[in-house]
Fold this protein.
Amino acid sequence: MLEVHSSFTHLMTPPTLLDHPLISDAQLLEHQKNVAIARQQILSAFYTTMVIGGLSTMVWAVQITRGVPDSGWNILDVILMFGLGYGIGRNNPLCAKLMFGYFLLSKLLQIFSGRFPPTAAPIAGIIFFYLWKGIVGTSAYARLMETERDLRERQSLELIQNRSSVPTSKPKPAAPTQPLTISPELLSLCGGDRAQAQWLVSQLKIKHPDRSPGWYDRQAIAQLNSKNYVETDNDRLDND
């Protein structure tokens, strides 16, 4: 289901950070963990909004089949729910805030009009919780992507300066590259986001070249489980 969501929303793929002497493995890992947490919060809010939109659609369809007059507000409510849910899936903080505010307003109107049963309070509380996580997740994701953009600009400038000062030499033929291995366990630790998992494996491949594809996958899983994990150079190179 996570794969379907990723293909449906065309979520932003994180850029590949170039190797930088000021960026350590621990910092890259911390950044990756923060991105995974934000993405999981966004997914929770996305699914919550889709469920609310689905329920609203069912209510609207039942009213139509029973011949209840429709003022047009129900279909507008459905369109608004799915539209804001799509925006949340695209990591849009504004859509997350609008969805939270819209749901809050609808509940207040139901309370003041006497149409809100007390037994629905726990369910409404759970929905508010996940919608709030959507606000937190989209805001955090925007900050993390801004940090990556700033770092890429700094790295690009440094690369240009370094290349201008280093004499050119005949390029060596590129060695055949091995495909990156993304295991189901690593995909699960990255919140089901294959782009995020490939991003982390690619960073390890940049910092530790000439290793087997399985090594990068095992190292990424170990780092996500423990920040202090360091695999020795004598570990198995092939354990696929």
Observations:
- Residues 121-165 form the longest helix (45 residues).
- DSSP finds eight helices and no strands in the chain.
- Residues 23-164 form one domain.
- The mean pLDDT is 76.
